[in-house]
Amino acid sequence: MTLLLSSQKSLYAQFVALLQDYLAISKFKVVAMLVLTAWVGLALAPDVGRGITVQLISLLGIGLLSASAAVVNHVVDSEIDSKMARTRHRPVAKGRLSKQHALSFAVVIGVSGFIMLLLWANTLTAILTLFALVGYAFVYTSFLKRATPQNIVIGGLAGAMPPLLGWVSETGQMAAAPWLLVMIIFTWTPPHFWALAIARKSDYERAKIPMLPVTHGIDFSKTCVIAYSVLLALVCVLPYLIAMSGAIYLLASSVLNGIFIYKALKLKFAPEEDTAMDLFRFSIIHLMLLFVVLFIDKWLFI
Ligand code: HEM
Ligand SMILES: CC(C)=CCC/C(C)=C/CC/C(C)=C/COP(=O)(O)OP(=O)(O)O
Q1: Which of 174, 192, 211 is the last residue of a domain?
Q2: What are the tens digits of pLDDT across the range 202-215?
């Protein structure tokens, strides 16, 4: 009896460990944030009377294609990942999951997501989301990441697409307004990533990846972080200027961007041991709150 219970327990533990590995290769937390930004894009689009179920399936489709791209990233980057302290315990890099298993998983969730978008959103959303997948999984991961320190500036467009994808899933058409939300994430990505790359420079050096702090030094990278933080603050005013968002959004985004710029300045002029990682962590809270406020401003205060 004890033997049966303990073997059931170990089976359960194995199942949980496997689930954790599949969630890890899907970059679950990043995908959750991407889906949040897609949801806000969807919520800010003109109301065309689609039901909540169809909207949720559209978001699920975007999430599944994003996760599929993340899995391909884990497969393509497994050799690089195994050289970096931050990533060497990842399931594919460590060999706990084979590349074949991971790729089959990517194909299953990718095809499912694409079909969901075709059937419950529209062809334009399905195609644009596929472009974003190719942009991240192949253009950024297989090529740009190893080729140029501007890798994440150009590659960042793929991760910035979800608000547009959410909007188009509602309307079936492109519009100028969601591009402003894309621009916000596009401008946010470099300081988000370079803060981490500054803290993890030796990792990227060891893996021979030409991230900005490796090729141009930490001091220049910190200047770029400040420049993009200021640009981000300016871009964040645009939704207010075109009356897409109101005063609540303007106030909250100004506070968030003020803190962002303060932390970027601190990183350059008065750094402490944890300042770069502190900015990286804050960038995630910043983007999450910014998009939550975009939603609140639209639905509670207009
Ligand atoms: C090319 C663009 C981007 C690059 C290079 C990048 C890079 C990174 C890296 C290296 C990490 C650390 C992952 C780890 O701890 O193992 C990270 C974490 C994170 N990123 Fe980004 N990122 C990008 C775009 C985005 C976008 C567009 C979003 C969401 C809209 C996002 C949201 C997050 C979140 C939520 C985390 C924390 C994940 C966790 O705690 O597990 N990132 N990013
Ligand atoms: C369909 C769609 C919207 C696709 C976008 C998918 C996606 C997961 C974008 C996030 C970008 C990201 C986490 C980049 C880090 O990659 P990295 O290889 O530089 O970081 P790592 O070293 O942590 O793997």
Answers
A1: 174
A2: 999 999 999 999 99
